[in-house]
Amino acid sequence: MSLEMPPTASPVSPDAEARIAIYKQKAIEGTLTLDDMKDAIILLRKGRMEALAATTKTKSGAAKKAPKAKIDAQKLLDDL
Amino acid sequence: MQQQLAFPSIFDSSMLACLKSCEIKFFRTYIQHYKPIGESVHLVAGGAFAKGLEVARRCFYEEKASIEDSIARGLTSLMEAYGHFECPPDSPKSLERTMGALEYYFEQYPLSWNESVPVELASGSRAIEFSFAHPLPISHPETGDPLLYVGRMDALIHHLGGVWICDEKTTTRLGPTWADQWDLRGQFTGYAWGCRQAGIRVDGAVVRGVSILKSKYDTLSPITYRPEWQVDRWYTELLQWIEHAISLWTSGKWKHNLDESCQSYGGCGLKRVCLSEDPQPWLDTYFRKRVWNPLLREELDIELSSSLEMQENGQKNSQPASSMLHSDLDQLERK
Asked: B93 touching A, CB under 8 A?
């Protein structure tokens, strides 16, 4: 299953990055807890789902926005 | 001078692949023990991911922990294994994304999925990070002891009504031909041989690729079969390759590939050495001597490795070679 996202979307949110940096420091200090990692799971999952939702919205939006060109058949014939 | 350098006593799939791709690369890497200075983000991230996966599996299947606890402990181990490594700015395999990839993996392949259960061993443990070491009918050219072929697979699982080798691969791209490269891959044929030596028949391998990109994760899970005739062929040629390595070691006439191997996988790490008329200054500057231990799956400082080998030789003198093997496969109970 491929979850393609807009170039600027990341499956890891800035909030998740910041929290993981804190947890990394706690791991170094020996104070990291299981609840910290459960929080990380929630953040990582949330960021991934949000990025997926943003991709879905962008794709459907792009499909709606593209206008259909009106073709003037008579003009084309006149140009010939 | 080359004959003073020891010939390896243990072979694994990485060493064999290296020998097949370039004789000089094998000589530099596994006889002279030159390894590039600095760590590879691919190896660090891949190793950390594998560690996280192992711990999560053991927690769930052996300790009967909950899914959430198991993944949390897996992430903890992943983080510890990633350590202080600084991910290059242009690489997507940062700590955060590697952790995200593990969380994504367990969404795609849930721990509770009954098509992914690790085989249970007689000891009650599961076939997770499952290793083997079997003697070959080739003697070490110096010690006379049987050479060993070793391997360690991520897991042996129940799948599609059979027993399958399960191997995870982290990558930056899962292109249209990614799945095709495993059909003849010696690594898995060697694993199948290792299982067969212990009386376990496997159908083949499930190769789970997980791509880690800056904007997405992705996965593919191709299966590749290993019929008996392929395992037989692999084994016959394994012995031929090792005999060939011994003859190269004896003669000292190691040859360069000077062809596609030099550019594969983004370019051989020894390329600048081979481009130089005098390779030694390049080796002294950009490489360090560390010994790859296939049993421990780690690189050791060359002096420490020599010390350990001397201790092992002291023990070996009082025991037959076969009793030195530690194979989880010997404990397998067919269920």
From this structure: no
Question: A30 to chain B: nearest residue by CA?
Answer: B80
Q: Using 50, 70 and 90 to split pLDDT, how confident is the model at A78?
A: low
ipTM reported for the complex, 2 dp? 0.79
Residue-wise DSSP of B202-257? --EEEEEEEEE-SS-EEEE--EEE--HHHHHHHHHHHHHHHHHHHHHHHHT-----
What six digits make up the tokens of B80? 């510890």
* CA atoms of B13 and B255, how far apart (whole Å): 20
d(CA B239, CA B189): 14
C-alpha distance from residue B299 to each of B2, B7, B239, B302 (Å): 21, 17, 25, 9
Cβ atoms B250, B2 nearer than 8 A: no
d(CA B23, CA B32): 12
Least confident of A33-37, A63-67, B71-75: A63-67
The pLDDT, as a whole number, for residue B302 is 74
How many CA within 13 A on the CB side of residue B106?
27
Q: B219 vs chain A: nearest CA distance in angstroms?
A: 6
Q: Which of B95, B99, B45 is nearest to B72 (CA)?
A: B99
**Residue B96 contacts A where some CB pair is shorter than 8 Å:** yes
pLDDT score of A33 more than 90? yes
Mean pLDDT over residues B161-188, rounded?
Answer: 93
Q: Give pTM, 2 decimals.
A: 0.84
